[in-house]
Amino acid sequence: MNEELAIQANDLTRKFGDFAAVDQISFEVSQGEIFGFLGANGAGKTTAIRMLIGLLAPTSGKASVAGFDVYTQAEAIKRKIGYMSQKFSLYTDLTVWENIRLYGGIYGLSEDNIKAKAEELLSSLQLESVRDKRIGSLPLGWKQKLAFSVAMLHEPDIVFLDEPTGGVDPITRRQFWEQIYQAAEEGTTVFVTTHYMDEAEYCDRVSIMVDGKIEALDTPAGLRQAYQADDIEDVFIELARGADRAE
């Protein structure tokens, strides 16, 4: 596997019975890249990401994350990555500070390091005033930004974001992407799944999944040019129509 690549997948497949949720997908993600994994709900994005982070065994194919094999080195992968799920990974019955301390411990940080990082995190997000409030009482946008920051607490090589901006307003989505840009500028590889087609424009490169397959992969500008489209949503619609015609 190429050491300059953060993620490599070759014919990666996951079947549930006779149904192929992810069907022989192949792609590479460079270190420090913001890679968009686009597709409609049910296209197979979450299944793919669960295989890459070591939570779900592939049926067939090959993949490596941070240089580790997804079949045999899943635990090593988990130490190198951050992960934020679409349903958030924070505990709603714990306070902001308790969540930070909990995940800092899970990531193996020392007590002093957790305290220092917590203060820095709360200051950067302007959440000092709610550090002792339960997560469940916070607005969705605050939860979202905090969940991302907690996923980055241990300074992972790669962060996986599964539908991170679902359900929030456009301003909060923009603020969240500013966090993503900052992480990428500091060298973190960002792998983000989304069904918001406009978010493709924020990525370095984009793959578009339709019915478990990657139907297109390029830069946003490259996709628009290849399909003579005004935006990525038009590209997606054309690909979806093509898949329907093929059936």
From TrEMBL:
It holds the Pfam family ABC_tran. Keywords: ATP-binding, Nucleotide-binding. InterPro entries: AAA+_ATPase (IPR003593), ABC_transporter-like_ATP-bd (IPR003439), P-loop_NTPase (IPR027417). The keyword S-adenosyl-L-methionine does not apply. One of its GO terms (molecular function) is ATP binding. The keyword Transcription does not apply. Residues 7-236 form the ABC transporter domain. This is ABC transporter ATP-binding protein. It comes from Fodinibius salsisoli.
